[in-house]
Amino acid sequence: MHKYIAVLPMxxxxxxxxxxxxxRHVNNLNDGYREISQYLPFDxxxxxxxxxxxxxxxxxxxxxxxxxxxxxxxxxxVVTMGRRVLRLNTSRFTDLKSTDATIVTPVDxxxxxxxxxxxxxxxxxxxxxxxxxxxxxxxxxxxxxxEIFAEGDVP
Length: 155
What we know:
The protein is of the alpha+beta class. The protein is about 20% helix and about 35% strand. The chain has helices spanning about 1-5, 30-35, 135-150; strands spanning about 10-15, 15-25, 55, 60, 70-80, 85-90, 100-105, 110-120, 130. Strands 2, 3, 4, 5 and 8 form a five-stranded antiparallel sheet that branches. A two-stranded antiparallel ribbon has the order 1-9. Strands 6-7 form a two-stranded antiparallel ribbon.
């Protein structure tokens, strides 16, 4: 990023964001709920729960640029992923009726922990972040992401 930042035709920017989507495969939903509980400040009731989604924003002050506040928006979930194939029983889309298609369910479904991160500067009127500090700020964002991956949802 430093090479790209060096050629930016501006002196400052108003806002910066860093997004990451990370998944880790698990054996089944119960294992997924049990494992995701290790990253959260509560236990997910995996025996009686489904469609789990937890979102929180934990703000922090930047250590790189004094006075800049950072959003650490986290969206935690356990997901089932897989392909679905739609088999058409007609050769023309214009003649297609709902009874002319069947869904073939392959056996390659998988379950995963899913973490979506949106780490960004809090929007403020007349906020100016000097371009020469963007590299250090993006490194701070990456460090925050690594901290969340290792420690989970911590204030």
